[in-house]
Amino acid sequence: MRKYYLTVFEKDGTNVLDEVFEANDDKEAKRIGQDTLEDKGFSEYTHRCAAPEGHLVLFHR
What we know:
Elements: E1 2-9, E2 15-23, H1 26-40, E3 46-50, E4 56-60
Antiparallel strand pairs: 1-2, 1-3, 3-4
């Protein structure tokens, strides 16, 4: 399992969510990230999900 980092921001740049979760691969991480955002009501906020190597698997501005 690999650790992925999900971060959500307000429009002014304030960080409102910082979560680390584990997934087997980027595809699973994207699904988990999208589900988490939807469950917490952050789907339309600026967000990103980064892989352990630093590349983005999910991004919304």
